[in-house]
Every structure is written in C-alpha cells, then in structure tokens.
Amino acid sequence: MTVERVTADFWFDPACPWAWMTSRWMLEVEKVRPVDVRWHVMSLGVLNEDKLDELPEEFREAMAPGGWIWAPVRVCVAAEQRFGAEALGRLYTALGTRFHNQDQPRTRETIVAALADAGLPADLVEAADTDEYDKLLRASHKEGIDKVGQDVGTPIISVPGPEGTEVAFFGPVVTPAPKGDAAARLWDGTLLVASTPGFYEIKRTRTVGPIFD
Predict the structure, then answer these.
(1) What whole-number distance in Å separates Cα of residue 46 and Cα of residue 62?
(2) CA distances from 127 to 74, 82, 86, 112, 124 (A)
(3) Sheet holding 35-41, edge to edge
(4) pTM
(5) Distance between CA 56 and CA 51 in Å, rounded?
(6) Dmax of the chain from CA atoms?
(7) 20 to 30 A Cα–Cα from 178, which one of 26, 164, 186, 208?
(8) Closest CA to 122 of 137, 105, 109
(9) What are the tens digits of pLDDT across the range 16-31?
(10) Are 3 and 53 in contact (CB under 8 A)?
C-alpha cells in the first residue's frame, strides 16, 4: 500500500536555538516518515518590536532595528527569493550549525562563511544591512503567526489536521533533537494532538537549555 506523503510547514528565525532543535528533529522525521518539510522565515525582531522596553537590555539591543537579530533572517529571505525554498533550507542548516553547534559569533563574516557552506554566493550578505527584503520577511512572518495566534514564539509548525485541514502549533520545544524511532514517535504524537478538536496546549517549565549535538 502506498503511503501518502504529507507536508509540514516550518517557520523559523535562524537566531533561535529552540527553533534549531525542532528543525533538526524535523529533518530526522523526513528520514523515518513520509514527510516533506517546507521552510519559511519568521522574525524575532518583528515578534518583539512592540515590546522592546519589556526585554532585558541584551535582547533589546539585538532585536531593535539594526540589531544583529535582523541580519541572518534578511539574508535567508534574499536567498529564498533568488534561489528558492531548497536553498533556504540549505542556508538555514549552514547558519544554524555555525551559530548554535559551533557557537560562532553572529557577524557578517559568519554569515558569509555559511553562504559558502550552502553553495550560495557571498553577495547575498548585502541583504543583511538593508530593509530591501523586509516586506517579504514580514509577510512570511504574518503567514505563520496568522495560523497560530499572537501568543507564541519561534518555531511554528503547521501539520495535517482532521479531514484535510491544517493545524499549527508553536513548537514542539524539545532538546536534544530526537532521532530515529524517538523522532518518529514525537511526529506521530504531534499528528495525534493535531487531530483532536479543541486541543491547544501542553507545556511545562524548561529545566535545561538547548543541547546541540
């Protein structure tokens, strides 16, 4: 019997370590279930632009206009526009590996190195310091947020729901990223709760930070 492939839409900001964890789980899910991930950008800068005064100073500076949070995601949008969604996925992996697994600085030089890793031209980095792609970035961000509501962060994942609908969630937030059978079980559970009418939230306090492997 042929099993129908499904698509999971995934919204991320490359600067977010928790989105990185979830994205690595989704890549594992692609290996063990008939699932294709479709990547989209969202922005911690956009998400927090109306509440900068409530953030700790270090995050306030990063997320303010011109802060370093904006540069990587702007380059991601530029890469997608010029080279397509598959290139966006490659660049996300390259950026996330350097930012999170290797703890490299969030600088222009690191972005250029990630572009090389992804087989993309270095001139894409020019998007980092301009608002040329911000309209597209905001539209992609809004698309994800509109599916799940305002009271969320990154990542957002949209999965098949009952009777051909789609259901979007914030998360799942998990560390380390499950692999193999564990990845499959979490995916199956995600589909299970998505198929439950009226299901909204499961949550507990995080007691460990992201574990990169």
Answers:
(1) 12
(2) 6, 12, 19, 11, 6
(3) 35-41, 6-12, 156-160, 166-170
(4) 0.92
(5) 11
(6) 56
(7) 164
(8) 109
(9) 999 999 999 999 999 9
(10) no
